[in-house]
Amino acid sequence: MKSIEIYGFIGWIASYIVFVVYLAWVFLPESALHSLGIHYFPQKYWALAIPSFFVATIFTVITGYAALNYCFCNNFNSYENIEDKYTRLHNLKKTELHEGLPEVYDIPINVVNNVLYWQKEMIEKYLPKHQD
């Protein structure tokens, strides 16, 4: 067995043990915990406060991430939505030399519009025909 598998199994078992201890702390009365020899434990307030803070933090991070992405997006009428410095246009000569799958490339917007609106000559020019 690999060490990562052992660490994963130990983490899995430890998470169950921690969860059972948490449930015992939440649901057992203080007298039962004292009879088990446990005299120092946090107030029951933290049983709800910590998970609530955790959920609020996750919600804030997700909302903040979405807001940050929204701030850095281009406007809808920006030319960079169509073509930017990372654009890789189709090179017929280079693709014809390779066997198998062609390179990944961006389809020009005029080709996309012609295919979407069914102009037959553009479809025949840019889309390969199926050889059955």
Automatic annotation (TrEMBL):
GO terms for biological process: GPI anchor biosynthetic process. It is found in: Membrane. Residues 4-117 form the PIG-P domain. It is a multi-pass membrane protein. Pathway: Glycolipid biosynthesis; glycosylphosphatidylinositol-anchor biosynthesis. Its main location: membrane. Keywords: GPI-anchor biosynthesis, Membrane, Transferase, Transmembrane, Transmembrane helix. It comes from the Eukaryota. The chain crosses the membrane at residues 6-25, 45-68. GO terms for cellular component: endoplasmic reticulum; membrane. PANTHER family: PHOSPHATIDYLINOSITOL N-ACETYLGLUCOSAMINYLTRANSFERASE SUBUNIT P (PTHR46346). Part of the complex catalyzing the transfer of N-acetylglucosamine from UDP-N-acetylglucosamine to phosphatidylinositol, the first step of GPI biosynthesis. This is PIG-P domain-containing protein.
